[in-house]
Amino acid sequence: MHFDLTSALLNVLLLWILTAPHEFAHAWVATWLGDDTPEREGRVTLNPLAHVDWMGTAILPFATSLLGAGFLGWGKPVHTQTDKLRGRLNGLALVSLAGPFSNVLMAFLLALVALGTLKSAPGLASFMASGVRLSLYLALFNLLPVPPLDGSKLLLAARIPMNVYVELSRYGFVLLLVVVSYTDVGRWLGHWSYVGAQTIFAMLR
User: Fold this and answer.
1) Residue 32: is it exposed, middle or buried by C-beta count within 10 angstroms (0-12/13-18/19+)?
2) Which of 12, 44, 105, 139 sits at a 20 to 30 Å CA gap from 97?
3) 50: Cβ–Cβ under 8 A, 6 or more apart, which residues?
4) CA torsion angle 44 45 47 53 (round to 10)
């Protein structure tokens, strides 16, 4: 088995860069919808340190990337109170979708930087191009309907029974490990994030 230490470290660095706008988007939309919880907890900020979950933003992404077992990672969840959100569960769906949407926006931004530095700083351009793919990967990954990912909140918005959601939450971490490490889901996410990145670059050229 080949261990690519450099690639694993760069993936973690990119994850840190992408986590801040992702979690900020959750916090901002929740605040806009009337929930002051993210603001009280200091989450309406682009400071990466406010959004780091050491297991999800450092240890696991490094390990899964190093082992070539897909890429598993997340930031510190933004707490919201559904009863404070306008639209309640519908508002929760908007809060949940804000994170993946921010990843798509970041993919376009990083692609612009990559294209703009292609001749003057090819190393930076390559790093930014990797960021485009990872940002799209995170958008897709976070839509998986498994707690604690954003897609699981969409299950609540779809009114699945709370006891089903609680059971999923109990085994969510293990389920994610199994899905990413032992199924084709990780490869599928990687493939479509690559296709998405190529599409973005083709649009911007």
Assistant:
1) middle
2) 12
3) 20, 23, 42, 43, 76
4) 10
Would you say residue 1 has pLDDT above 60?
no
pLDDT by residue (tens digit) across 83-110?
999 999 999 999 999 999 999 999 999 9
Reading the block at residue 141, the tokens are 């990954």
Helix, coil or strand: residue 161: coil
Residue 197 φ/ψ, nearest 5 degrees: -65, -45
Q: Are 49 and 90 in contact (CB under 8 A)?
A: no
Number of domains present in the structure of the chain: 1
Q: Would you tell me the crossing angle of helices 150-157 and 162-182 to the nearest 10 degrees? A: 150
- Indicate the average pLDDT of the chain: 90
Q: Which range marks the domain in which residue 34 is found? A: 5-204
Is residue 4 predicted with pLDDT exceeding 80? Answer: no
